[in-house]
Amino acid sequence: MTLDEWWRAYQLYTDYTELLDTQRLDDWIHLFEDDCLVRVMSAENDKAGLPLALMRCEGVPGLRDRVHAIKEVSVYAPRTMRHVVSGLRLTRQGGDFLATASFVVTQSLEGAQTTVFASGVYRDRLTPAGDRLRFAEKVAVYDGDLVVNSMVYPL
């Protein structure tokens, strides 16, 4: 693996967090392959090999449905989310890359103290798309058994 390949992965994660944190969800979708799989699941289910996920989106159409629900259907208190990602590790698998990174997501509701919403690990598969990388599979495994409140935005 080259420094350039690692840098492209780092840029992908930076774009991912910035687009979620600024709620630019229509742009966020473009970070994914058309046939992607996105899951958010508890560490307990992950360790037990259970497929149950708190959120599961198959392909870009599934991501578009999620974005539509966030913007047009769901009723929730206004909030600011902040994603912090660290410890990015890459290994090559064929033409793709397997990536792991730790994450912490904070949530700030109007009139309330900022809280840690979730922490955990990303286990992703990245695939080349021109001079950039995209997510072919994105799995967020959160540490606790529960998440605070409801999960409006993806981890």
Automatic annotation (TrEMBL):
Transmembrane segments: none annotated. It comes from the Bacteria. Residues 11-137 form the SnoaL-like domain. InterPro entries: NTF2-like_dom_sf (IPR032710), SnoaL-like (IPR037401). SUPFAM superfamilies: NTF2-like. GO terms for molecular function: oxidoreductase activity. This is SnoaL-like domain-containing protein.
